[in-house]
Amino acid sequence: MKKAETFWAAAVVALTLGASGAAFSSELVSYKVVDGGIPESLTGKAGDVAEGRKTVIARGLGNCLACHQVSVLPDEPFQGDVAPPLDGVADRYTVAELRMLVVNPKTMFPDTVMPAFYKADGLNRVAEKFQGKPILTAQQVEDVVAFIGTLKE
User: Fold this and answer.
1) The domain 3-148 belongs to what CATH superfamily?
2) Residue 128 pLDDT
3) Model pTM?
């Protein structure tokens, strides 16, 4: 990877990891992986589409638009082109797979630079104040899954 690419990849991950100001429990909800996905809600209830949209566009939280483009969000500036567009993602993956992609995308795509949004251990270069904490809460994961679950062709 070239110096500039390394810088930008690190900057995106740092912004994603470092900007989250939400309060988190140090314990993550346990979940079961079935056929490469997480079929059950982390919270036991469905996510909220509107809240998921807010998390996706929040530069200090999900920061999904730093890398992805989402055509149903045309008023959101500076959408990324580093990762695949999220348009049609709900046609390509099951809800269980979408949840896994948000929780820990490296389980499906080991070489991805996308961070795990619901993982607190085994991470590299995490600021001390964020160590042991996931980027998103279990409910925020469910909300994001609800929103991206609406993104069909």
Assistant:
1) Cytochrome c-like domain (1.10.760.10)
2) 87
3) 0.81
